[in-house]
Design brief:
Helix content is about 40%, strand content about 15%. The protein is an alpha/beta fold and about 500 residues long. An 8-stranded parallel β-barrel has the order 1-2-3-4-5-7-11-12, surrounded by 4 helices. A two-stranded parallel ribbon has the order 6-8. It has a two-stranded antiparallel sheet with strand order 9-10. A hairpin with a 4-residue loop joins strand 9 and strand 10. The termini are close together. The chain binds 6-O-phosphono-beta-D-glucopyranose.
């Protein structure tokens, strides 16, 4: 592909989330978040995402009493809290233009409902953003990435409670005011649709606390509150930081019909709509009719305040960001078909695609298809804020890490990304690879599921030196950024 380059000013970089990378879970006045109470299950098959995400009130109570951090990997993360200067310097060495990170809500408001913010927490992110600025890196900040303070779960039933919107508004106003001169790009809720797949980490919901209630209704009620909160966050951000850009964030699970049988095609259309309904709501500022039909047919009643519809309509997002890791097949009947795991979904295996060790099917063309679908649907700029390969890496005797498989994954995806921009006319603001530095996996909570260009010496129990080592892909990505893709 000689002389093909990405558009001028394309924002190349990497992404992390506080709950998976920071550690320092009880330092600097930080409160406890839902993720700090999420235990790993190393004995459970890695493809059994349901088991990995199951949590009860009793589990949380046990977690709160436990000081055995080796069981709760998100408590140690990759120790970014102590290594951020070194990490950002390494991002700069790769040439990052942008670094996507999240602010841990519980570092700013330890219990979520506190009146005053925690100054030490605010100062930490001041330091992080200053460090980014020193290296010419633009921060892209997720306001909420699986980090609700646990107090909101235990005393308010998480996002099911309307009151949480007010607490979130307060948090957003605080961070936008504090970082008004440091952060221009924002995302409201990471993968807002993941409320359906892991309601605990996304919405602070625990099923056993809603006895006698329709669980799906609980989830959608919490989701409604996040939609209103997201619109209010967009409003607040635009008011406090003129010129700022606020995006929604969707898990782009791309489904193909397993066969051309109309029943299978219909099923894939239904599955895609079941996903698009979230970004449709955030981009168009209203619930799509097909989601309202689903509510009606399932007897789901969402409690709304009279002003909610107007709020959602008045403050839609400026751009659409998404994660893309894989595609899956879907069919009217799965009988006799091979299934595989994916990004918190189980789907039919596509015989034409290879899979990662975690069963996620690798499909670079699916990225192009996803970009075209999203851009045609929304006509808003896209931002790919997560993509990458979770793999086991080995440190060689000479200390090097040869992750050619990761380079191959990125190489293929970057080519199709460029095809979407160049041939399909898709507007794409930038690309941040997921877990640019190794971090704790969201679904399985393993450290050994590594995504980074930078290796972190730490095992699934948190043992290790936390030394950073650039992998082979580090040097490769540097060349991609340096040449703005021409190197590919
Ligand atoms: C996305 C999440 O769904 O997938 C991240 O936003 C997560 O938080 C990423 O880490 C990869 O998933 P996993 O389970 O491999 O960490």
């Amino acid at each position: 592909m000689p002389n093909r380059r990405f558009p001028e000013g394309f924002l190349w970089g990497g992404a992390t989330a506080a709950n998976q990378v920071e550690g320092g879970w009880n330092e600097g006045g930080k409160g406890i978040s839902v993720s700090d109470c999420a235990r790993h299950h190393l004995d459970v098959d890695v493809t059994d995402y349901r088991k990995h995400n199951e949590i009860t009130t009793r589990d949380v109570e046990e977690a709160l009493k436990s000081d055995d951090d080796s069981l709760y990997p998100k408590r140690h993360g990759s120790q970014f809290y102590h290594h951020y200067k070194e990490d950002i310097a390494m991002f700069a060495e790769m040439g990052f233009k942008v670094y996507r990170l999240s602010i841990a809500w519980s570092r700013i408001f330890p219990n979520g409902d506190d009146r005053e913010p925690n100054e030490e927490g605010l100062k930490f992110y001041d330091n992080v953003f200053d460090e980014c600025k020193k290296h010419g890196i633009e921060p892209l900040v997720t306001m909420s990435h699986y980090e609700p303070p646990i107090n909101l779960t235990l005393n308010y039933d998480g996002w099911y409670s309307r009151e949480v919107i007010g607490f979130f508004e307060n948090y957003v106003r605080t961070i936008c005011t504090r970082y008004r001169d440091k952060v221009r790009y924002w995302l409201t809720f990471n993968e807002v649709d993941s409320m359906i797949r892991h309601p605990y980490t996304t919405g602070g919901l625990i099923e056993d606390r809603f006895q006698g209630k329709l669980w799906e209704e609980v989830i959608f009620q919490a989701m409604h509150h996040q939609f209103v909160a997201s619109a209010l966050a967009t409003k607040i951000c635009h008011e406090i930081i003129p010129g700022s850009k606020v995006g929604c964030m969707l898990t782009k699970l791309t489904y193909y019909p397993y066969t051309c049988k109309p029943e299978d095609v219909l099923k894939s259309q239904q599955d895609m709509r079941a996903l698009y309904c979230y970004s449709d709501t955030q981009v168009f500022g209203e619930y799509p009719s097909y989601l309202l039909a689903r509510f009606r047919n399932k007897g789901i009643n969402i409690r709304k305040e009279p002003q909610d519809d107007e709020i959602m309509k008045s403050y839609p997002v400026d751009f659409v960001s998404f994660s893309y890791y894989m595609s899956s097949c879907t069919a009217a009947s799965t009988e006799g078909l091979d299934v595989t795991a994916g990004n918190t979904v189980i789907a039919i295996k596509n015989p034409y695609l290879p899979s990662s060790d975690w069963g996620w099917q690798i499909d670079p063309i699916g990225l192009r298809i996803s970009m075209v679908d999203l851009y045609d649907r929304y006509r808003k700029p896209l931002f790919i804020v997560e993509n990458g390969l979770g793999a086991r890496d080995t440190v060689n005797e000479d200390g090097t890490i040869d992750d050619q498989y990761r380079i191959d994954y990125f190489d293929a995806h970057f080519r199709t990304m460029l095809d979407a921009i160049e041939y399909d006319g898709v507007e794409c603001m930038g690309y941040t690879s997921w877990g640019c530095i190794d971090l704790v996996s969201e679904s399985t909570k393993q450290m050994s599921k590594r995504y980074g260009f930078i290796y972190v010496d730490c095992d699934d129990h948190g043992n290790g030196t936390y030394r950073r080592i650039p992998k082979k892909s580090f040097h490769w990505y540097k060349k991609v950024i340096e040449s703005n893709g021409e190197f590919l």
